[in-house]
Amino acid sequence: MRSAPIDIRDRPPYTVEQFCVKEEYEADLDRILVSEGEIESRIGCLAEEISRDYRERAENEVYLVCVLKGAMRFFDALTPRLELTVPNSEGVVRAARYSGGEPGAEQAEVRLLDREAIEGKDVLVVEDMIDEGYTLETILDRIEAAGPNSVEATVLFDKVARRQTDVDVAFTGFVIPDEFVVGYGIDYDERYRNLRHLAVLDETVRGT
Length: 208
Ligand code: IMP
Ligand code: MG
Hints:
Elements lengths: L5 E2 L21 E6 L1 H22 L4 E7 L3 H7 L9 E12 L6 E7 L9 E9 L3 H11 L5 E9 L12 E5 L5 E2 L15 E4 L1 H4 L2
Parallel strand pairs: 1-8, 3-4, 3-6, 6-7, 7-8
Antiparallel strand pairs: 2-10, 4-5, 9-10
This protein binds inosinic acid and magnesium ion.
Inosinic acid (IMP) binds next to β6, α3 and β9.
């Protein structure tokens, strides 16, 4: 059975001081939403669920796809914990959101780096975060077009209240509030990826 994601929207956050973050980050963070220990425990649970699921139905080779760059830490924690009974291999896609001229006309630019590797495989996309959903939707469409046997997604953090698409995520780690977050691989302007916990960025940093 698949577990429900952990919804952290209704619980109190941690203060930055409670987790002794890197000194250079202290002033930039407002609060800690999810600690490294909680993230890694949940990833362990996702790994078991994913392993069970693929053991039951994977017929072909499983192809694990890391969405660069934000999902690198999630991918690194998840994939060694998978216990698959079929051969598996790994690849990457590069995804970025950009503003397409009109206000709100945001689109996702996705580059598959190894199209040929996808054909016939059972593909699992490993993504850091889903927000409106356009990025993951585009990734899944591009992978579908490359002829896999199946495609599923696992996402560590879900800002479900902002969804604009009906993209299907098979395995979700945490449901989080509508806040701009950084850490555990997730950046603002390429910074804060090596923060060990998931934190809310202070509003003054983004100038909002
Ligand atoms: P979507 O297309 O709206 O689902 O956007 C998802 C992508 O936007 C994520 O993979 C991140 O790269 C980025 N993103 C969304 N929310 C945040 C955030 O709070 N912090 C950092 N990046 C974010
Ligand atoms: Mg991402």
